[in-house]
Structures are given as C-alpha cells and as structure tokens.
Design goal:
122 residues; 3 helices; 0% strand
Length: 122
C-alpha cells in the first residue's frame, strides 16, 4: 500500500463554553444591617445575667449515688458460671465439654466487656 499523499487533518479541540450564572433571587437578598453582631449580643446577654445573679451561674450540688452496676455484674457472672459448671458436670461427652468451655469464654469475655466498658453507671 502506498503512503497517503494528504496529511491528516488537524486535531479538533472540544471544550465547554464559558458558564454564565444568573441568580434567580438576586433582588430578594438584602444585606444584613451592621448592628447585628452575634458575638456582641451574646456578650451583652452574659453581662446582664452576671449582673442579675442568674440561676444559670449557680450549679446544684451533685450527689453521687452508689452504682448498682458492679453488684449486678458479680451476681450475673456467678449465676451463669454456676449454670455452666453444672452443665459441664452433667454432660460427659467431649463435644458438650467443648461447647460449654467455649460458652465460658464467650460469655465471660462478652458480658465483661459490655458491663464494664459499654454500660454507664446506673
């Protein structure tokens, strides 16, 4: 095949046209008056509260109540572990022992994590 006699046409460049944005509500926007400074308003409100001995400045005494979480944790751990020990002594096959020992690990680890790290004092 002989080489082409005409050169390739120049490469076309495709671009987007310039964007023109016109706001729909340009006439409705009003500039904010210069006297509305939120920080100044908040400072004035705070000064007024401090001058009038506001109830927000007086914090009530917080009484720490004894948590029942630790008591509940110990009671449930003892009861469930006693149940698992009873099951371990009742069943005499290896498969049941394997599942019961796995139950010890899963329950003690999961319940300890939930009660000591997830649940707040109650």
């Amino acid at each position: 095949m002989p080489p082409p006699t005409e050169p390739d046409p120049p490469e076309k460049k495709y671009t987007f046209k310039a964007a023109e944005f016109t706001p729909d509500n340009a006439s409705e926007v009003e500039p904010e008056p210069p006297g509305n400074d939120p920080l100044a308003i908040l400072k004035a409100n705070r000064a007024h509260e401090q001058a009038n001995n506001s109830i927000y400045d007086q914090s009530p005494a917080v009484v720490k109540t004894k948590s029942r979480r630790n008591r509940d944790y110990v009671i449930i751990m003892i009861l469930v572990n006693l149940l698992l020990v009873f099951l371990l002594l009742t069943f005499n096959d290896d498969v049941s022992h394997t599942y019961i020992i796995a139950g010890f690990g899963l329950f003690n680890g999961g319940f300890s994590w939930v009660m000591l790290y997830v649940v707040d004092d109650y």
